[in-house]
Structure formats: structure tokens, C-alpha cells
From TrEMBL:
Residues 2-116 form the Response regulatory domain. GO terms for molecular function: phosphorelay response regulator activity; transcription cis-regulatory region binding. The modification 4-aspartylphosphate is found at D51. This is DNA-binding response regulator. It holds the Pfam family Trans_reg_C. Residues 124-218 bind DNA.
Length: 221
């Protein structure tokens, strides 16, 4: 899962990005509205953390332009605690949720997880496919109760497929959501990770759809 953090306070930006990275997300960062708008307009994100009070272009304007251009990624707006009008303006502009400053980083993480879950149509942080269970909150997975030892990239790939269970996901889409903007992307690595996941799970849950990509499917009866 790939997240964009747009916050002009460099320390806060870094703290949020570090926490999201530690939680298993791929994170891109921007420090002003123009840079944030450009990244959100040109790169695919599973969620965005967007501050209202940004230089160059304020967060409300950034969000309004994204929504006007048809960008549907869930957005968590950061607002000032004593500015209720900012919260209203953010929701009206298309924000999916908001958190008021000062806040605990854990609250941001929880709200980001919830936004991604809801966007994919899931109500719980635990995603299940047959005997496979993926806990997106704890960044863990198991098969029949037996823990899977996964690398960070393997877990990200598995979590993305689980969030889009039953859908065909192209290699290009997987690469775009597994790596940040500066990574030297190679779609061939996806095949390697899929092969490792199949071996570690010992289950035939990841289907290869020739010429299109991969699909997570329920086990056959």
C-alpha cells in the first residue's frame, strides 16, 4: 500500500512518514501544496494524509482540484483543533476523514488503515481467504494459525491482493503500489515475490491471469 503525506512541518512530516513506513506502507512525501497536488495527480496512492495549512497551495484547494479531476483516493485531512470551519471545509471539499492537531501518531495510523479498508469494501483489519488470514493492523499473516515469515515486500504484495480479492491486478499496478516514486521499478520482481508467497503459503490462492496479472481467489471446494 502506497501513501502520500503532504505536510509543510518537516518534523511532523517525517514523523508521520516514519510511522507509516514502520507499519509496512510505502510513503512519498511533499512539503507544499503544489508538490503534493502534482504527486497526487500523477502517481497512484491508496490514501493521502493532507494538511490544510500548506504554502504555495492550501490543502482545500489541492483536494478540490483532485476531486474535480476525478481522483478518488481516500484523504485524511489534518486540521487545527480550534478551527471547526476547516473541518467542515475539508469534508465539503471531498475529505474522507480528519484529525485535529495536536494528535497521536497512532490515531493517524488507525484512521489511514480504516480509510484503506473502507475503500476496498472491508469492515475489519483482518482479511481472510480460506485458511489464509492477513492482519493489516499488526502486519502479520498466517495459514491455519501457523505464522508466515514474510519480508516487507512480500507482505505488501499479499496485503494489496487481499484488499482487492477477486479482482485482476496487473503487474504494473502492483509495482506502482509497492514502491515509492524514487525506486527503480521492475515488474519482473513481482513474479519473484508471487512465487515466494505461493511457496510459503503452500496454497493455490494467487491465480495468474495470462496477459493481465494476478487475482487472489477463494480456495476451490
Amino acid at each position: 500500500m502506497r501513501i502520500l503525506v503532504v505536510e509543510d512541518d518537516k518534523n511532523l512530516n517525517r514523523q508521520i512518514a516514519d510511522a507509516l513506513t514502520e507499519a509496512g506502507y510505502v510513503v512519498d512525501r511533499a512539503h507544499d501544496g503544489e508538490e503534493g497536488h502534482f504527486l497526487g495527480d500523477t502517481e497512484p496512492y491508496d490514501a493521502v494524509v493532507l494538511d490544510i495549512g500548506l504554502p504555495e497551495m492550501d490543502g482545500i484547494s489541492v483536494l478540490e482540484r483532485w476531486r474535480a479531476d476525478g481522483k478518488k483516493m481516500p484523504v485524511l485531512m489534518l486540521t487545527a483543533r480550534d478551527r471547526w470551519s476547516d473541518k467542515v471545509a475539508g469534508i465539503d471539499a471531498g475529505a474522507d476523514d480528519y484529525v485535529a492537531k495536536p494528535f497521536h501518531i497512532e490515531e493517524v495510523l488507525a484512521r489511514v488503515r480504516a480509510l484503506i479498508r473502507r475503500a476496498a469494501g472491508h469492515a475489519s483489519s483482518e482479511l481472510v481467504c480460506g485458511p489464509l488470514r492477513v492482519d493489516t493492523k499488526a502486519s502479520k499473516a498466517d495459514v491455519g494459525g501457523m505464522p508466515l515469515k514474510l519480508t516487507s515486500h512480500e507482505f505488501r504484495l499479499l496485503a494489496y491482493l487481499m484488499h482487492h480479492m477477486g479482482e485482476v491486478v496487473s503487474r504494473t499496478e502492483l509495482v506502482e503500489h509497492l514502491y515509492d516514486q524514487d525506486f527503480d521499478r521492475d515488474s519482473n520482481t513481482v513474479e519473484v515475490f508471487v512465487g515466494r508467497l505461493r511457496k510459503k503459503m503452500g496454497l493455490d490462492l494467487i491465480e495468474t491471469v495470462r496477459g493481465m496479472g494476478y487475482r487472489m481467489r477463494e480456495p476451490q471446494e
